[in-house]
Amino acid sequence: MINDYSVAEALLEKVKQWVTAKNMTVLRGPGEYSNATHERQGILIKGYEFPPTMELTHNPPYYRIF
């Protein structure tokens, strides 16, 4: 795992370019374990002292800068 915002930003920019090249207009994520639930997941901004569990987003702390 690379814990670096600039790396995540570069990867997302490449995905955006790929989506645009395929004439798509929507980029949706993060993905869910199952589309059957149709529930949206959020971004964890506190509570890192607890281990991740199924259906719980456990992203790197630097994601909260958005």
Q: Could you list some keywords that capture this structure?
A:
single chain, mainly alpha, 1 helix, 26% helix, extended
Structure overview:
The mean pLDDT is 75. This protein is an all-alpha fold and 66 residues long. The protein starts with a helix and ends in a 45-residue tail after the last helix. It has one helix at residues 5-21.
SS content category: mainly alpha
How many E strands?
0
**Taking all residues together, what is the mean pLDDT?**
75
Percentage of residues assigned to helices: 25-40%
**Overall 3D geometry?**
extended
Count of separate DSSP helical elements: 1
Q: Which regions have little confidence, pLDDT < 50, spanning 5+ residues? A: none
Output the helix-strand order: H
Oligomer classification? single chain
Strand content: under 5%
Terminal-residue CA separation: 20 Å
What summary fits the major beta sheet?
none
Rg for CA atoms: 14 Å
Topology:
Layout: H1 5-21
In summary, what is this structure?
By secondary structure, the protein is mostly helical. It has one helix at residues 5-21.
